[in-house]
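Can anyone check this?
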Amino acid sequence: MVEKQLARVEALCADGVRAVVARDNGEPVAAAMVVVSDGVAGVQLVGTVPAARRRGLGELCTQWTVLAGFELGAEAAVLEASEAGEPVYLRMGFVELSRYRWCFGAPA
């Protein structure tokens, strides 16, 4: 899915889509994107490389995408949290509305 979403730079320049990359000494170390549709900002693909974790960069990228979503006309922001991201998002003010009982990844 990520490959299809990000296969072309133009996909990040579409109406209702914004992305941000945090860099350290010119190297990309964290990123996030938001897609706004029907008044909802969907925060997606938040990630930080292992060497740059625990510095607040994922949170900073998430804050940027949420604000961008509201600037694009969203009335609400949603995301799906990993176990690592959940404490960050709760601290930011997100609330849990539901939880997946099972998560199936790609086959081995």
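Reply from J.R.: I decoded it. The chain has a mean pLDDT of 89.
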